[in-house]
Amino acid sequence: MREGELTFTFNRRLVAYKQGDTISAALWRNDIKIITRSLKFHRPRGLYCGNGDCPNCLANVDGVPNVRTCTTLAENGMQVTMQNKFLSTRIDPITVIDHIFPRGVNYHHRFIRPRFMTGVYQGIIRRMTGIGKLPTMIFEAKPTKRIVIDALIIGEEPQSMKIARTLADENLKIMIVKNKIGYTLTHQNDEETNSILSSADSIEHDLSERKNVKIIWKTNAIGAFDDGTIGISSKDRLYICKSKIISLSEKGREQPIRFVNWELPGIIQRHAALDLISQNIRLGKRVVVAGEPNHAKALGELMLSKGINVTAIIYRSSSVDLNNKDKLSDISKIGWRIKAAIGRNELRKIIIANDSKQMILPCDCLVTCGPAAPNIDLAKQLGCGIETDRKSFPIVTVNGDFETMKGGVFAVGSVCGLRSRRESWEAASTAGKAVTERLRRMGT
Ligand code: FES
To answer: Measuring CA to CA, which residue among 5, 123, 10, 13 is closest to residue 57?
Structure first.
C-alpha cells in the first residue's frame, strides 16, 4: 500500500479503494469476488444486482451485520468481514451438502427420524441457519429528524428532477430522495437519452443550490407509515417526513436471467456493471454480455467504446437488428441462450446453446441484462391502486395527470407503466403542473 492511499480491511486483509467506491466495487477493484456465502448450502456469493435488491453482498461492516456492501460507500479504516463462512473464504466444507443432496434439502421431511435425534438435528440446523451474527456491542441509534414539507420527490429517474424544478420554481418547500448522484453514465448510446440525462444533471445541479430544496443523495425511502409519513434513512440520520404531495419515480428492478449457477461470483446484472464502469473498475479479462436485445446491444457498445474486452454478446431472441459492419456483429450470438455457468468459487466459463448445438465460452465476467419490473413497493404501502401492464408486470394505476388512486400521490415512469425515457420525461411536465395545481387547491 502507498502512503496516503485510502484503505479498509476485508477479513483482515488491507484493501485499497478510490473515493466514491462502494465496498463491493472496491473489492471487485482488488479482484475479490466472494463477499458472502449462501444461507443453506454456503455457495459462494458476491456482487450481483448492485442496487440493494438481493442478499448476495451482505457483510459485517464495523460490527454491524447484514450491511449491503453494494450500496455502502467504502470509508478509510472500515472493517469488513465476510458472513456465513465456515473455515476459510474460499474453502467451506459445508458446500459438500450440495454434492450429497444435489436436488436440495427439505428440512421438514428429511430430519425427522429417528425421533430421539430431533434435538441434535435442531441444534445443527440452528447453527447453520440465520444470516450474520448479532453484534455484541450496543450501537447508538441514528438521530431522528421530523420534517413537514410541501412535496417529497422520491426516485432516481430523470423525470423526478423535472417535476422537482416545476415545484421549486413555485417556491414550494421540497425534498428529493435519490440513491445516486448525477446521471452522467448511460448505457443507451442514443442522442435523445443522453440529452435527457444531461438535462436532468443540470437541473439537479441547479436545484442543489436552492434554499427551498433539499436533496438527499445515496439514500432510500424505507417505508410508509399508516398516516402517510415516509421514513427516509440517510447515512447519518432517519427522517420522518410528512408531505402534502408525494411523487414516485423509482427505477425498475432488473429481473435475474436464470440458468444453472446463475448467482456464481463474477456474474453481475447490468446496473452493477454500469457502476463498476463508472468508477473505472476493470470488469474482467473476458467479458460476456447476455439478455434483452436493446440493453445487451447498448451495453456491449458502451463496453467496447471503453476498451473492455467483450468476447461475446448473447441474444436469446433472433430479432436483433445488427449492421454487418457493426463492431458487435463479429461477437454477437443471436438465438443462443445460457445453459450454465461453471467455476468452483468464481465464474470461469459458461455453456451456451441454441436449437442445434452447444458450446463453452471461457469468461470471468458475465453481465446479464434482464427485463426490468416496476418498483411499486412504496406505492403499495401508501395504498395506491395496482394493475398489470401488457407484460404482466404490476404497475400503479394513474389518471391523466399521473395522480394515483391515493390522492396526493403521483407516479411517473416505469412505476406507472411508461417504458421509454422520452415518455416519462414528457409526462413529468404534465405531472409537475398537476402537482402545482393540487397544492394551490390545498391552499399552499
Ligand atoms: S444487494 Fe448488493 S449486490 Fe444485490
So the answer is: 10
